[in-house]
Amino acid sequence: MFKTTWAGDCSAWECDELGHLNMSFYFDKFEQARMGLFIRLGLAEAFTPDAVSTVRSRDVHIKYLAEARPGQPLRIESALLTLEEGTALVGHVMYHRDGRIAATLRERVEHVYLPTQKSFAWPSRLRRAADDFTDQLPAPARPRSLSLDIDLPAFNAETLAEAGAPSIGGGVFRTTEIMPAGHVPFSQIFRRITTSLGWYEGGWPEFFDPDYAASGGSAVVLEIRLVMHRFAEIGMAYELHPAVVGAKDYIRTIMHNIVEPGSGVSIASGYAAGGLFNLNTRKLTKPTEAQIAALSAVTIPALAPSD
Asked: Per its UniProt record, what InterPro entries does this chain match (predicted)?
């Protein structure tokens, strides 16, 4: 069954210009919840600086359901969904104090032996405890606009450049951004994405219209799936290459590709379903035909995930 694994609040300093919890801090709280779950399952040493094995997330799907605003209390419940040989599906549900679901996360994790970087079997103490921590995600967590059943491509830098996906952001991962086991987690990957998107005219052309911003126009991400192809470490450089791969009704779908510039190898890739958002009404707004046409003109279908 689901157990409470984290409780706190949405602090003002964790919120962005939209006035709600930034996606990187959703992940920061979910990462604490995952650690809390596996500590309760008997892996008390897995997240300490001298750990020889750990549990890390490889494939995540997050769905945002009710905004977390500054000062609001939040609570996360977590459970195992399935337990395999050295991997598992884990579910998390973040609640507001009044019981509304703020967000859900489904993630595939791996139990990894750090000296070899390979996954290995769960210990018997965890398998014995697993039944008390196993459950199913509630219906609101089901994907709406994205698929969980397809492989997300690991495009290299050359392929992205040839397809026309621009480089809009870059930097280097630092010591403050790593987990005790030495890898950069999803929260920091998302932090780098959110702080680069202001340069991406292709995905959100409305942002470059002063009248749109003056009327309270903005944008919001509703659902994301992201996969780690290679775990970044301290001192690794990265570049971000986004691409619009679909636009229909309220939803535009954007691929996010993060590559290591020296080798061109993919670090992570994912796709997000987002839409226009009015900051005055706090509601989604439907794009005009002209706005959908502008997006369609820059869509790169070749970079979309395929079945």
From this structure: HotDog_dom_sf
